[in-house]
Amino acid sequence: MQQKKILCLHWLAACLALLVSQKLPGEENSQVKLKFVIYGDTRTNDTAHRRVIAAAVKQQPAFIVQTGDLVADSSDRTQWAAFDNAIQPIRDGHIAYYPAKGNHDVASSAFLKEILDPVQPGYDGKNYYRFDVRGLCFLALDTESLHNGAKDKKARRQYQWLEMQLKQASADKLFIIPFFHRALYSVGRHRNENKALREWLHPLFQQYGVRLVFQGHDHLYYRTMRDGITYVVTGGGGAPLYDIEQELQPDERARKAHHLCAAELSASDIHITVYEVEGDPKKKDPVEHIDDFRVSLVADPQR
Q1: Which ranges of the chain have pLDDT less than 50?
Q2: Is CATH 3.40.1280.10 the right assignment for the domain spanning 37-254?
Q3: What percent of the chain has a predicted confidence (pLDDT) above 70?
Q4: Is 143 helix (H, G, I), strand (E, B) or coil?
Q5: E-assigned strands of the chain?
Q6: Nearest Cα to 230, choosing from 193, 274, 288?
């Protein structure tokens, strides 16, 4: 009996050690710079999506963030099968994949089945969620609920969850990166559709010190800074590309292109390089560098 108790204690200790050692992707070696990729709006152009995936995998990221609209019609099983086939190199490479829900992803529960990696679900399950990696707090939002406004029960519930996560992450001195589908700021065809959502979320991001946000919905690349927050639209994953429909400010960047954003975390900042994935696969290197910027991990002392 005594021997059985000792064996049981050893087994419990081993289980506890395993639980303690479990970490999210990218946390395995804090001495190695953390790399991750962001892109979105894959939808209908399977060939372009595959080129983006190939370029993303070459970055050897710990994980990939996707800003929504995985498919064009989420009620069509064949589209989900094509999507899963396109991202198979990510699964084969054991690269974590974190999508946000887009307006084309709402017709079925198939979207939720794409979230296979550990997350902290919101009040409505994995429709919105959180995951933390090495001092970074990522918040995937469901803007299909939020854009209905404060009168909507689900929208209010998600907003309360978001504020709680922002407050907690800020108190823990984590660098917060929200990502979602409907863009608060854009220069594409949807640029004027989300004013109410912007008026709801932007002040909240300001209040809790958010300095970097990734969005989708407009099928192009766009970077702007508003009140100290860098907003990036990355919607060039395979959906039909949109024209740039607004004059850019001097410190803004935009490109009508299929592309991805490659990020690298260092001790002082996040360095983001944006690559256009060109349409000619015969080129030796069918990837063109189109933007490059850094976001400091420390709040601007001038603000």
Answers
A1: 1-22, 24, 26, 301-303
A2: no
A3: 86
A4: helix
A5: 34-39, 63-66, 96-99, 120-122, 125-133, 136-140, 175-179, 212-215, 221-226, 229-234, 253-255, 259-265, 269-277, 287-296
A6: 274
Exposure string over 154-186, b if 16+ CB within 10 A, otherwise e: ebeebbebbeebbeebbeeebbbbbbbbbbbbb
DSSP states of 66-111? E-S--SS-TT-HHHHHHHHHHTHHHHHTT-EEEEPPPTTS-SSSGG
Helix axes 153-171, 195-207, angle to 10 degrees: 20
Beta strand pairing call for 96-99 and 63-66: parallel
The amino acid sitting at 173 is: K
* pLDDT tens-digit map of 157-186: 999 999 999 999 999 999 999 999 999 999
Exposed e or buried b per residue across 18-29, where buried means at least 16 C-beta atoms within 10 angstroms of its C-beta: eeeeeebbbeee
